[in-house]
Structures are given as structure tokens and as C-alpha cells.
Fold each of these.
Amino acid sequence: MELDLAQVRAFVVAAEELHFGHAAERLAVSQQAVSKRVAKLEESLAARLFDRGTHKVELTSAGARFLPHAIEALAAADAAIASVVPTTRTLRLDVLDERLAPLQLVQHAVRRFDDFPIEVSMRHGLPAALPALRNREVDAAFGRVHALTPGQLAELDHQLVLLEPLALLVSREHPLADAETVTLASLREVRLWAPLGGAVAEWADYLAQFADAWQLKLDTTGPALSLDYLVDEVAARPDVATPIGARMQLPPTSHTAVVYLTDPTPVYPWSLVWRDEHPLLPTLLESITRGFTWPSDVWLPEADRATSGRGSAGG
């Protein structure tokens, strides 16, 4: 019996999405095509791989047993093709958002090396990028690795590449607007506002741990619509301060100010995560981690410190 790789790929993507419509979007085919390929594969195997209900799709026990072997089969096929077809394949990276620190790291690498082929995508968080990593739609993704479960993390390699300091975004009318820094101890008297409705889950979890650890008053009400919306809202609310990454690229405005946090400085851990090592990945890692050190006076959740692997990134 021979397997049709197009059918196997349709099964793997559908299994990752548990939604035939979403699988069709990833494969750039119609939903009907995905359904037909999976049906033909089930016919060849004489086994039902999915239970298809009115509102949900689930793997059968046979489908769950077949999935890891199907993933390995696709990987072997891709590797076989790559071994005989010369290529300078583009390094595909997921950076979460165009105004966040990871894109700055990528831009640094591009400026440093001539003809460095990189393609960037944005999937709104590391957990959302996992299916694309498994399906080799992207080669690596930036994010906070503690957002992943131990099972998810076990199938991936990762390296800490940046500890980004946190800062406060405040209105020009806020009492802290003229301060360059504020200590974490004095922050307990400041009303913090971070609208998290629809925000990236790994950022929301980090802020919750930060507030709990330092006994801070954190208001998370409101939608996380866009960075421009956030800046406009902060500018109009002189009673609140909003935690942000200090390297975030803010839209030009004279109505807000950035205040840095100290004693200690809270930092957000950015890691690069990958499943299969792309030939250009070592070059990228060397470029974006050159000079990386672990600062002495920083705060990081203990779970992040352990998961990030302090010794693995030069600190």
C-alpha cells in the first residue's frame, strides 16, 4: 500500500486545526478538496480518522495513532526533496507584531548581512504559531516559551535572545510624566491599566504574574484593539499608567511619555523557537544574540527564568 502525500498533508493540517475550513486556508485549497483528500486517505487505510460532528471535528483513536507517523512521513519526504534540489530557501520567521522588539532583531540581522533571505509573518502569539511550525509553514517563531505546555515545549528547540525591559506609557498630564524612572516599590501607589480583551495570551499571563508578585493594582478592562488605540486612550487618561515593552515602536505623538522601571527592572523574555533547524538559523542566532548578557538587577517570574534556560544564551 502506498500513501498519497497530498492526502497525508491534508490529514495532518486538519488534525492540527480540527477545522476543515481552517485547514483549507492553510493549504490554499478549497474545503471540499481537503475533505476529499481525507476521505480518500480513510478509504485507503480502511479506517475512520476523524469524527465529524455538526459543531466540531475530533480525531478518532485511529487518527490519533496515525498522526505522529504522518508528521514523520511528511518530514522525511521534505528532507528527501531538499537533499537533491539545490536551494537557498528563505528563512520564514513569525514575529507576532511589526512594532514589537523581535522585528527589530530581524532588521538588525538583515542590515548586518547582505542577501539574507528572510520572510516575516505575524500570527498573534507563540501558541498560535505552533501549527505553522509543525507544518513547516514557518521555520522559527519569537515568543515567551513559558506560554507553552511541557508537551509542546518538548518537541521544540528554543533559545533566549532578548530580555526586554518594561516601561510605563503615561499621559503628559500624568504625575509621573516628567520622571525618567520609577521604582517597583513606589509603583504600588500607581493605578496600572492594561486592556487585555483579545490581547496575546502570553503577554496577559506575564502581566498577571508581575502584578501578583509586586502587589500592584492592575486594571485589565477594555479591548486590546491596536497600538494606536492604546496610545490615544492613555493620552486621554491622566489617571492611569500602562505597562509596555521599552523597545516597542510607538506612533509619534507629543501627548504621552515613557517612564522606565527600576529597582529591579522587570524584563520580558523573548525566545526564538524552532522545530527543524534551517541552514540560516545559526547565522541569525549569532547575529541577534551577540553581546547578550543576563543583567544582574532584573525581575523575571521564576517559571520564565527556569524555562528560558539562563545559561543557554550567554548569561
Amino acid sequence: MLRTLSHRHTAEPQLDPLLPGYSFNTHLVAGLTPIDKESYLDFFIHRPEGMKGYIINYTLKGEGIILEGNTSHPCRAGDLWLFSPEAVHHYGRHPDAACWHHQWVYFRPRAYWREWLKWPSLMAHTGFYRPQEEDGEIYSTLFAQIIETVSLGGLYSEMLAMNLLEQLLIRRQQSVTDPLQRQLDPRIHAACQYMNEHLSDNQLEISDVAESVCLSASRLSHLFRQHLGVSVLKWREDQRINQAKLLLSTSQLSIAAIGSSVGFDDQLYFSRVFRKCTGSSPSEFRVNRSHQLLSKEEGQRSLRWPS
């Protein structure tokens, strides 16, 4: 079972930035977090109030997952994520993955970096960028150099690490502003929006989505996998299931009605897909969610009115 550990103040200061309780009271700290299944690092980080600075995360291997309410986003090898100070941190190893090894750097930016930190967002206050495959080694090397420089300590180590981080940000900025380089195509965002607006339409085809953003179906499929790392159909299925989970948690609608509202007219098929994605049937999920909410409310009451 995956654990979720939140930031807590302890009597003894935590000196390991890989573990909860570390203060991050610094301008820059960096590291490599090698999370293997059932290892001592195999827990979910949860910082509901964000942090004072930014974090850039680069996945080396395996897969992580970022949770945003009832929506989830995978972190696959080669993905870069930028968490702003306002971002909620709730992430860990993907339950289906054997590991999630990622490099990261926490920093408080120099004033003139402002424009370089405006990344396209796939979730609130959290930017996403996937370098071209051939550039992945460059980013990984820069992260490794930042981590090594910080570990050396000394009078100028933080300054040198900040300069290396600046190189990383400039390289990413150059790749998205240079017209000769591939950019994160805004039509992908438009396609996602279109599908979210038509989740209940079980007749929707990839060709319909492609037409809405003036692309061929094959071109949309290629760009979608290139930029988001999943197929169009898989992304739509994930959004349907996420919406179904929200309705199961917050409404009294029947399971058949919820399935229909997210594009599954066949209740048995809806239950089968839901179980494949979540590990439980819709009815089991609703019961478990109800129990979780009840336990949370009881815990909050016990904190307010201790016996």
C-alpha cells in the first residue's frame, strides 16, 4: 500500500531533503530521488499549501503520478514538470510502476527569470515540458551537474548551481521560442478541451476531434503521443473515468446514469473499464470513498474536540 506523508514540523530538524520535514529554507537544493516499489522512499508527498519556491522535476526512468483532485497526470521518462509556489504537491510512484527515479531542483528564482518560468500548464500552477528525445541527455546531465555542485558545498557552490539551472531554463526557453524547434502545439490543448466538452458523446471519433482543430486524424494522433505521451483514446478514457470518480464521490446519481454521462451507455462495459483503470467496480469505489470521507470527518472532529 502506498503511503502519503505530509510536511510536518518536528522537534529535530530534518536534514534529508528526500524525507518529509525538510524545511527547504534555502535558495537552491537539488537531488536524485530513486523510488523503488516498497522501498523506504515509496510514499506520496503531499504539500497542500505549496512551497516558497519552485521545483523542477525530471523523470529518468519508471513512472510517477501527480494527483490533482480527481484528475491524475503521469510522469514518464523524459518529462519535465515545473511546480510554482502556488502549486499543490501531491505525487509519488505510479501504483503500476516498479519504480520512479527522478532528478529535481528546488529554487527561488532570480528576478529576470520570470518569463522563463511561464510554462504551458496541464494542471493548476504546474507547467509541463517534454524535450525532444535527442535532448533528454542534455537535461539529465545539467540536473546531475546541479546536484553534484550543490553537494560539494563551499562559498560559491550555490552560485555555480544557479548558473547551471539558468542554462537549463535558457535551453528550454530557446527550444520553445526558436521557430526551427518543435513547440508544444496549442492545438493539443484545444483538442483536450474539445474532448472534455464532449465526454458524454460515445459516438465521438478521433476524426471528429482532429477536424475540430484542423488536423488529420493521423497527425493529431502523432502529435498527441509526442507531446503528452499517451494516445488520444487513452487520454479520453482517463478523463471519463476521472469524471465518473468525481460523480460517484459527490452525487447520488445511479451508476448507469453516471456511466452514460461520461460516454458509456452500456453499464457492464462501463464497470469493466472502470475496474481496469481503478482496481474496483463503480459501486465498490463509491462505498470505499464514502467510508474514507466519513473517517476523515471523524478525524477532524476528534482534532477539534479532543476527549
Amino acid sequence: MRREEARMGQEPLRLVQFTRSFHIGGTEVQVLELLRGLPSSYRLQVSVLEDAGPLMESVRKLGHAPEVFSLKGSLAKPNTALQILRLAHWLRKHRVHLVHVHDFYSSIIAVPAAKLAGAKVIVGRLDLSHWQGRARRLLHAQMTRLADHVVANAEAIRTMVVQEEGLPADRVSVIHNGLDLQRFDARVAEGLKAPLPDPGDVPTVVHVANMNHPVKRQEDLLLALAMLRHEGVRLNAWLVGDGPRRPALQKMAQELGVADGVHFLLHRSDVPALYGRATFGVLCSSAEGMSNAVMEGMAAGLPMVVTRVGGNPDLIVDGERGLVVEPERPAQLAQAFRRLLSQPEEARKMGKAARRFVARELSLEKMVGQHDALYRRVAQRPQG
């Protein structure tokens, strides 16, 4: 393997992108964009834990047939060790130079396998580990420390990995997510794929998030709407996403007396077009990574109201590209909504500034280019 590393300047860099699956999510979309955008000088391969997800068709159209290393349930089962050995053998067979692993479960397989195979490994840390229990956080931190390099997609995540998990700062890079504005604008132009409730002349706020995890805090949005309603201010809300928490949220909207203006749209494939019909957007989570939902709202030219958590402050500067409030403070949300509604010209300026920021700082070309440079730097580094 060391001879191979010495020759990498004369041969393609053999890179594996390893992720859990290709369901629709921020991580999976970014992996797909890397597969599309990296130069043809790479020898790219894809590995997954599950051969599943609607994005898998796009992966296959790019010419990739993902190799599957299934966990088959609990990490504590003997199968986990078997998959690590299988992957190590596969990496050696294909003379892989570098593995980029994008999520917790995949890192448990990929990091030790890469070490056994003599390949370099980069671990992606893309959230604040808010959904993990103590044991999983410790395990993830250990896998991260074993990696040759770490990619965070927000400054808050880099800070956590360095300060709380003890990684040297020079082994952690921040690369923000990228967005293909041309493709986004084309999706806006395609229009709606399904009808929307007619808001009439009432302004509309849109919230895009799953309804699986309490950290998304749709409850705070509902409370803010109720506060405005009490003052006589009408504001419709489109909640895009679904999950087991939806019935409780629907019941809460009824109890607060705002159900007539709160529309649960479930999963939508036309979010860009939907953003184009809203007045502003909101993401009021108590924990976040780098939110694609916020990025897409900005790309649509909407002022976004976000909480001061995770990657949100990387995207929104309060009063410039939107408004920033503290998490779990529905009264602050209501105040921010009131400001945007009462100052439409200021809101439009914020939306335009948000769009310019996406074009300048969050382009797909910039994201891919930064990964390209990092891959080559890490691959050429001598084994420690």
C-alpha cells in the first residue's frame, strides 16, 4: 500500500464515499453532489450499509453500483466485526487510498476497516450528536479520533469536536454544504407538483423539517402563531415534512386555535417552488447541523428566521440575511415574524442578501473544490 501511495501523483486517487443509505436527507444529497462534481481524475466507488433510498437511482445513473456492508441490526452483534473484515478485504482488493465516511453507523465499520487495510480515512461530522445517547457519543468520538482527518459542515460542530472531544484543531476542517443554484432555479421553474392551500391575502411562513425528533421544535412555531393571532395578526404556516410527531402537533394547533391557518403538507418533492410562494421561512430547532432547508430558503430569496444553534449562525447574520432568535423562545419567534411582516422592504433586502450569500459562499463548485483539495492533501500525507 505504501508503494501505491508513493505513486499517487501518477495514478488516479482511489476514493470511496461511504454512507448509510441514499434516502432523501441532507447528508445523502451532499454525497450525491460530490459524486457528480468531483473531477474525472478520481477512481470513485460507493459503499453503503443499506441498498435503499430514492436517491439510489441517481447514484446508479452516475455509473456506481454501491457495495453493501449490512449491519443487520445491533452494532453489538458479531456481524459488525464480520463487516469490518469484509470491508478491509474489499479496500485492499481495490487498492483504495482514501475513504470518506459520512455518518455515525458507517464510521463504526469504515474507520477500523480502513486502518486494517492501510487506507486513509476522513470522518464527516455533520451534526451536534444531539440524537445520540452517551454510549454512542463516546463511540463516535473514538472513531473520530482514529481518523486521519475530520470534516465538519459548521463552525459549531468543529468547536464541539475540538473542545469536547479533544481533537487537534489542525485535524478538523469546516466545509459548508453546497447548493446547485442552477438546478435549484430549474426546480422552481418547474412549479408545484401538488396543490397548495390558498392563503388568500394572508402572508405565509414555511417550515421544512422532519417530524421525527423533538429538536425540530414545531411546537414553538405553533405557539408563536398563537401569540400573533391573539394580537390580531394573521399568518398562515406550511409545515413540510412528516413523522410520528405529526398527530400531536395537529392536536396542538387545534388546541391553540390556529389550525385553520396551519397546513401540514407532509413530504413534498417541490420545496423550491413552494418556497417561492411563501413570505418568509423559519427553522426553530433546538439543535442543528448545517441545514439544507435554510440554504434552500435563502436560495429562493426568502428572509429566514432561525435559532442560534449549530450551523444556523454560519448562514444567517441577524438583520442582514434574516433574523436569529434564541432556541425554545416562541415569544422571540413571534417578535421576529412581526418585524418581517411590518417591514416588508427590509424583509425583501434580507432575502436578496441571502440569495447573494448562497451564490457567493455556498456554491456547489466551492464545496466540491474544497473536498477535492482536502482529499489530495490527506491522501498524500505520510501514514502516522
Amino acid sequence: MYKPVKLTDDVFYVGVNDRRTHLFENIWPIERGVAYNSYVIADEKVALIDSVEIGQVEKYLKKIKAIIGDRPIDYLVVNHMEPDHGGSIDIIRKMYPEIQIVGNKKTLPMLEGYFGISDNTLEIKEGDCLHLGKHTLNFYLVPMVHWPETMVTYESKEQILFSADAFGSFGTLDGAIFDDEFEFEYYRDEMRRYYSNIVGKYGSPVQKALDKLANLDIKMIASTHGPIWRKYIKEVINYYDKWSKYETEEGVVVAYASMYGNTEEMAEAVARELAENGIKHIRVHDVSKSHASFIISDIFKYRGVILASPTYCNELHPNMEALTSKLVHMGVQNHYLGILGSFSWSGAAVKKLTAIGEQLKWEIVGESVEEKHALKSNKYDACLKLGTAMADRLKQDRK
């Protein structure tokens, strides 16, 4: 029934698309859906690399059967235990009771915790190999990319890196499975949004993982989400290197909260002044409308950030507080920050945004602006000065 999707003669894609779920991890909007990727190596022994989210298991199993027929599966390699990949493990185990589940010392307790499975497992260590016949699997531990048990599997004959969540992307695979079957730009922004929100907190572990894998000859990267990379491998690895070092481009993200439009006026004034001073990349977000995942993705791309909030019950506006809490939790580094605030009777927003900037160790640019009641001409001019100061600071970095 299913025409097999071949990575090579013996290696197959058996992933599935999810276009129904609205929120990935019940947090992140996925208007373009998401793919759950899994792979079969049909050699003298059969290996299944990762599984899929439980709601997709029926069509997943049909794809596996279309490739191996009535053959047993000898090994299930679990690179990552998160339920969007590990959710089908129990069903697979019941269908293939002799299957041996392969994981590391941090995988196996999770396997027991989620499914009560503690037998017929194979614990591997860093650098261990598993021979399937013509194909050999090599295992490398990459903890905190982005769970502590995460590992990657390298198939040395075909030089395929099964990379777990690393190098993944939001977005379903709409006919095209491989990166040379569609325009690369279509997935680039969703790849950054995926990285910044799912993996972005773990820049240092990503750097360690990249160093560990640097000497491998990789002809294909098969992630658990998004396209299979075989043309743009260098570009994808370079993006991960850049993002995990918090390297950014010239541009400004203006993120504001505004209840009645006064703080929005301040943000608009700064944005216009940025444009008049030659800043081409300006992204303005109302934090009550734009989901934080899109704002955070833009912040991972652009160096300048303007945060603007009214004081709300002597705190930040709740949606600005939620955004800044995420930024602090993720430890986002290496940005320039401009601050705007407004209030009606007691101002606290500028003070709190300043403390957040200091906590993040971001460079605070220009004079922060705080207005009482409606925006007046002197504070409007101060907003323009802040826009100019941010533009000047960004232009100092030009080479």
C-alpha cells in the first residue's frame, strides 16, 4: 500500500505528518504542523530508529510493515525518550515481543518509568557499535540536546547521522521529504523557531555536541522532525553553531505590551526612528497577539531588542512578564536592549525591565523612557533618541 521512501537501498523513512495538533508540547503553535520521523534499516538484522507520537501509530505501523513484511524487528534504537518520539514504544514492544530496546544509562530508567519496561534492553555507552550486517551503528551521547538522555546514532556505511531532535524543524513534510526536493528557505525560519524555543536554552551542550561530531563524514542528517538534510548539511550545521553561540544579525525586535495604545505609540516612534537611521530589519510584535515563540525566534536572529510595557498592578504587563520570564529561563545572551515604559499612577515597568536586562547581562542602550499617562512631545522626542541610539550601537558592529 505504501511506496517506501528510501534514504539508501536498505534505509527507509517511515515518519508521519501531524496536521491536526494546534500546539506542539501543548505550548508552541504549529500552523504548518509537524512531522514525527522514524527510520528502518533492513539488513541481516532489522533496526528501527526512534518511534512516533502515539496518535500516529496506526499509519506508522503500516509503513513499517510495507517495508519489512513479516520480518521481526531486532532492535529499537531510542535516541530520545520524549513522548513525541517514544510514545509508540509500548505498542511496538507488544507487536514485536522479542525486540531489544537500545539506549544509554539515562534512557533505560525513563523507559521503565514511562512504560514499565525493564527487560530485553541493551545499554550502550559512548562510542559503542551495533552490527546489523552490512551496516554498523555507532552511538554518541549528546546530553541536554535537549534532554539528559539524548544521543545520536551514526550509520557508518551510508554515513547517515540519526540526530534525534538536533537539526529538526517545525512543519510537516508535504510530499517532499529531502531538502533538495523543496526550497530551503521554506523551512529555515521554522527551523530557527524550533531551535530557539525547544533547544535554545542549551547552547553550551549544543556546542559540545557539534565538537564531538565534527570529525564524522556525514552525507545525510536524519532528524526526528522536519526534512532529511543531504544538500544543505553544511548550512544547517552552521546555523546550529551560530545559534548556540548566540550570534545574531543586525536588526531590532520591538516587543511591546499596550492596554490602551500609549505604550504602542512609544514603540512605533522608536521603530520609525530605527528605519530612518538605516536599520533594515525591524520586527514589531504586540506581545498580547504574537505568540512568544515567534518573538523569541526573532530575538535569536536579531541583536537589538526594544522592550516596552505599561505598569500593571505595580508589575509588568502579564504578557510582557511571561515573555521576559522565558528569556531569563533560557538565558538568551549577547543582545542590546532599549527600554520603554508607561504608567498612570505608579511606575514600575522601566525598573523591572532594567533588572531583567541586567540579569540577562544584555547591554542597555540609550536612555530608558518612561511616560506618565499619554505620550507627550518631550517623551516622544526621547523615544526618537532611543531609536537613534540603538541604530548607532548596531552600526558600530558593521565590518
